[in-house]
Backbone:
């Protein structure tokens, strides 16, 4: 039986936090909101709690967990050989959507790090998350609170869909703010290397500590090397339908998707379309979902996983998505979209060329 507790982040109910913190201290599992996605919390220093986490998610146990802290001083208890740039990065981006990787201390069990000698650490800004971490004793491991292979949860409802009956409690703090998982920065190499793009971007790091590297395996589908973050090698999420990213300039993308949707309708196989506020009026065939506004790509990040979940409820076997510029948060949006699409892309111009004028 999974207890569900509604909690208001502007007026946190201490009794609920105490109850949830107690469960974590007992080695139990509590899902909670963070600014990125909902996390599945466990005491990061109890090996057995990590085992339960993997079991509830159906996740391979070689895939390490992120340890969440609420106070910067606590970093020293779980990490060693912390490089000097860390202070500057923390000053700018913690608390917030940044995870940094360090060599682990002996306090951290290998169950939590998937057998690695390094540990991923994040200090979230969400006040519910911070209160819970403190109530639990300071160190909470939390992967995204989805079943392995589904989109990360951005509402408590998504967590319930995947994990109800398998975990002890869900704290429902409403929809999350960012909607994509944190940026992962490997601090054990110099310069540091981005292993997963997120809301904190390479441009932002550059302003604080100078240029950082980017794990090159993230950029191409058939790299010979596995990505450096073990979790990035799994095709995170395969939608029920085939997802295809249509690439070109926006005008061409609209024309191509219009045509593909029209043809599919004629064959009575309606397709799904991932559109934006600006492009919505151009589509009159297919099942069209609005992912947000191009004026503010944060809205697109926020809605992406929810829209993908919605399409799993629809009777479509192909979904066409517009593409987004790979800059700012767009880098993370395209990274997640491409993973969901298994890197299937088609040039819009190929489709439009076929059209007779
Ligand atoms: O935004 C987030 O980071 C969310 C919220 C809940 O904080 N958490 C999250 O956790 O996305 P998860 O487990 O779904 O993704 C963690 C990623 C995986 O790709 C994992 O392989 C990588 O972090 N990772 C964790 N520890 C690592 C380590 N020591 N070295 C390299 N990659 C690591
Ligand atoms: Mg995940």
Residues:
């Amino acid at each position: 039986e999974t207890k569900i507790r509604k909690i208001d982040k502007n007026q946190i109910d201490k009794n609920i936090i105490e109850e949830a913190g107690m469960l974590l201290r007992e080695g139990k599992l509590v899902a909670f909101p963070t600014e990125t996605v909902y996390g599945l919390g466990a005491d990061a220093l109890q090996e057995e709690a990590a085992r339960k986490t993997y079991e509830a998610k159906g996740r391979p146990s070689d895939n390490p967990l992120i340890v969440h802290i609420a106070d910067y001083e606590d970093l020293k208890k779980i990490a060693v050989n912390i490089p000097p740039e860390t202070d500057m990065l923390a000053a700018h981006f913690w608390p917030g959507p940044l995870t940094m990787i360090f060599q682990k201390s002996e306090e951290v069990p290998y169950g939590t790090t998937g057998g690695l000698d390094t540990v991923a650490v994040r200090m979230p800004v969400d006040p519910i998350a911070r209160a819970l971490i403190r109530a639990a004793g300071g160190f909470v491991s939390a992967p995204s609170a989805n079943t392995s292979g589904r989109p990360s949860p951005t509402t408590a409802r998504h967590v319930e869909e995947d994990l109800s009956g398998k975990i002890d409690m869900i704290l429902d703090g409403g929809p999350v703010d960012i909607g994509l998982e944190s940026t992962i920065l490997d601090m054990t190499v110099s310069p540091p290397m981005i292993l997963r793009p997120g809301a904190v971007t390479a441009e932002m790091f550059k302003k604080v500590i100078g240029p950082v590297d980017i794990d090159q395996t993230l950029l191409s589908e058939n790299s010979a090397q596995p990505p450096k973050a073990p979790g990035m090698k799994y095709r995170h999420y395969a939608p029920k339908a085939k997802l295809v990213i249509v690439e070109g300039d926006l005008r061409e993308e609209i024309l191509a998707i219009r045509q593909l949707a029209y043809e599919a309708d004629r064959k009575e196989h309606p397709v799904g379309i991932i559109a934006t506020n600006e492009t919505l009026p151009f589509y009159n065939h297919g099942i069209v979902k609005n992912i947000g506004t191009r004026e503010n790509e944060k809205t697109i990040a926020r809605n992406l996983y929810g829209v993908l979940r919605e399409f799993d409820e629809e009777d479509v076997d192909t979904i066409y998505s517009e593409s987004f510029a790979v800059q700012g948060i767009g880098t993370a949006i395209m990274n997640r979209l491409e993973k969901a699409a298994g890197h299937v892309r088609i040039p819009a111009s190929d489709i439009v060329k076929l059209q007779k004028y």
Q: What stands out?
A: The chain has twelve helices and 17 strands.
